[in-house]
Amino acid sequence: MVATQNRFILWTGPKHCGKTTSAMKLAQVARAEGFNVAGLLSPPLYRNSKLLGFDVLDLQNGTRAPLARRKISQNKTGPFTFITDGLKLGNAALSTEATKSADLIIVDEFGPLEIKDQGWRRSVDSLLVSSNAVILLVVRRELANAVRQLYADVPCQKLAATEGNSIDDVITMLKNCRHHVEK
Length: 183
Known about the structure:
Elements: E1 8-13, H1 19-32, E2 37-41, E3 44-47, E4 50-58, E5 64-69, E6 72-73, E7 76-77, E8 81-82, H2 84-93, H3 96-99, E9 104-108, H4 112-115, H5 121-130, E10 134-140, H6 144-150, E11 157-160, H7 166-182
Parallel strand pairs: 1-10, 1-11, 2-9, 9-10
Antiparallel strand pairs: 2-4, 3-4, 4-5, 5-8, 6-7
């Protein structure tokens, strides 16, 4: 697989550090700068300070669906169960049709499921070879090297999701891409 250009970002940080919140802020800033943002976010759901699961939020149209849930009983948490409707919504949000006019495609999160060739993996593989957009994968720090190995032949930039200048760095990349296209 060879990407069309160096527009691939790993947006990294430890578990539960605010990567999704930073990605949402990035989407807002990018839109305010006039960029078309597509893709998905996976906001967490908590109950009584316990992580219950995640939803999937389509960044193009605001549609939201349950993505993963786990049972919590007697202060013990079980494994996540992925929900078909959420996976379908996420893959639809990452489809070529849904992302064709995007300047920035956010994929939150690219994790163990994708490393095992499930979840958003095939959609991301397709986007990396077909899209001219900046593609940003939200990745837990401990999985960044594994994701980097999956896409070893794709030029990549790694940014710390919660560092103050990371959003500015992505906006600068988007502006440079726009300037390059206008020439």
